[in-house]
Amino acid sequence: MSVLEIGAQLKRGAFMLNAKTSAPLDGVTVIFGPSGAGKSLLLSAIAGLARIEAGKIVLADRVLDAPSERVRVPPHERGVGMVFQDARLFPHLSVRGNLAYAERRAPAHKTRLSLAEAAKEFDIADLLERRVRNLSGGEQGRVALARAILSAPDLLLLDEPFAALDRPRRRAFLSSLRGIHERHALPMIVVTHQIDDAASIADHVIGLRGGSVVAAGAIAQTVATEAFQSLLDPHDVGAAVPLDALASRAQRRERAAWVRADHVLLARVRPEGISARNIWEAKVSSIKHEADGAILVGVETKFGPISARITSEAAQELELAPGKSLWAIVKAHAV
Amino acid sequence: MLSAHDATILATSFIVSARAVLWSLPVAIAFAYVLSRPRFPGKSVIDAFAHLPLVLPPVLIGFMMLLVLGRRGPIGGWLDQTFGVQLAFSSEGASLATAVMAFPLMVRAIRLSFEATDARYFQAAALLRAGPWDRFASVALPLAAPGVLAGAATAFAAGLGEFGAVITFASNIEGETQTLPLAIYSALQVPGGEETALRLALYSFTLAIAGLGAAEALQAWARRRLQA
Fold first, then answer.
1. Dist CA A66 CA B172 (whole Å)
2. Given pLDDT bands bounded at 50, 70 and 90, which one contains residue B169?
3. Residue B218: pLDDT band by 50, 70, 90 thresholds?
4. Which of A44, A76, A149 to mutate to probe the B interface, most B CBs <10 Å?
5. Which of A74, A132, A148 sits opposite B228 (nearest CB)?
6. N or C: which end of chain A has fewer CB within 10 A?
7. Mean pLDDT of all residues belonging to chain A
8. Selected residues 150-169 of chain B with any CB under 8 Å from a CB in chain A
9. Cβ A74–B145 below 8 Å, yes or no?
């Protein structure tokens, strides 16, 4: 299996990026971390827009960057596409002109789809003759994505392209992104600081803080680690639950849903006559006392580990102890 | 109505200045683009060189051109012997002198335009597989178009009035190198020529204003087209 090897060291003012990790090229990798972690800078280094000072970046069998060997492939020869947060559609061209710009420069043998097919797939066929300044934010994002795919990249980088979208549109965008990935076998690396986005799209996750990789690997295992959880806001602490496990409001295409510890209830007996749709058997695996007196309970379910945040009074009533069998209740609305 | 004499003068001015803009535009674009790039060694030297015609007396520019491009000059002599081309005292020479004088004006206008272009579009183009030359032609130049048009129009208007360098290098030959300001000068040398001079001055004034107006309009149009 081919991978993207990432070894990127570079300084930006007082900030130091020092990331060493890898991403498999047969899935979607999410670079996750709080703002200021260096996520976008890492993406720029992979794209060749930021020059690394030390390290090595290898895409499958092609060395893109290796300062010690004086190798540096310029951005336009990397075969790496990028969807920027701010779309960056060319203002002097129409929507069609923007798409054609990419199509004309794509190597024919790598082309995945034609301009007309892309316009149809991204639902922009009616916009083709419009000037880009007359597009809404969502439309711009779709055109930027179509443009990037028409350039037939070997790897597509996405820098929070959905940041400007509201929640429902964001869901739809992520879901369509997943679809594109699967239909065109296009490896993707997506930057986000929203854990829900990460859970819904990632096969693989790279957790970044202060320019360094703190956790990396397959999503299910990686997000459960202490190191990864430490990247999260306290109220975001939780677990990725495969979507097919959840009774949810709607059918969706995403991989997993992020279940926050704050949204999980624990019960000694299986509750009945309750509105929550997800009630799972759970075995206590860890008990952690948090600074503010709350207790974070890790439990094993048939869908993997999840966690619940409860008060100490509740813990007493539940007679909490490692190995104890309980019921975990997750409100479908929360996911 | 224009007399044949006045028409010849206007036509000469027009041809000399238009050709000057045409010749110096590509060079000015190249200089402006290079100067708009982030710092590189030799930048201030290139910058100073591009500005020379703006700070030196025009007569001196004409004189220097005579020394280099005249029939006995190193380049002028070679041009004469190899191609039989004489620049000094010809209509082409007048254009060349005008082109040199208009050059800094163009470089400044175009450079500002290049500098104002958002570098993020170049990054986007690079990641769509466009190489440096491709990016220049397909992104930088179209985005700088308002400045290029404005620079060309301003240079054309200024070129109509170029005097010192033209008279020194190309002389004052009717129908060949005698542009409006040279004709005004000649008229003033003749007793009772004030009336002619005034009439020519009026043309000159009208053309200059029209040129500036055209520059403004072109720029506004191009900017509207580009607005993101």
1. 64
2. very high
3. confident
4. A76
5. A132
6. N
7. 90
8. none
9. no
B110 C-beta neighbours (distance < 10 Å), count? 30
Please determine, for residue A163, whether its predicted confidence score (pLDDT) is greater than 80.
Answer: no
Helix, strand, or coil (residue A62): strand
How many Å separate Cα B217 from the centre of its chain? 19
Q: What share of residues in chain A are helix, strand, coil (percent, to 5)?
A: 35, 35, 35
Look at residue B46 and give its three-state secondary structure.
helix
Q: What is the CA radius of gyration of chain A?
A: 22
Length reported for chain A: 335
User: Do the Cβ atoms of B168 and B66 come closer than 8 Å?
Assistant: yes
User: Looking at chain A, which residue has its C-alpha nearest residue B132?
Assistant: A76
Helices marked H in chain A = 39-47, 95-105, 115-121, 137-150, 167-184, 195-201, 219-223, 226-229, 312-318
Instruction: Identify the contact set of chain A against chain B, taking CB-CB distances under 8 A.
Output: 47-49, 74-77, 79-82, 84, 86, 88-92, 101-102, 105-106, 132-133, 147-148, 151
Residues of B in contact with A49 (CB under 8 A): 123, 126-127
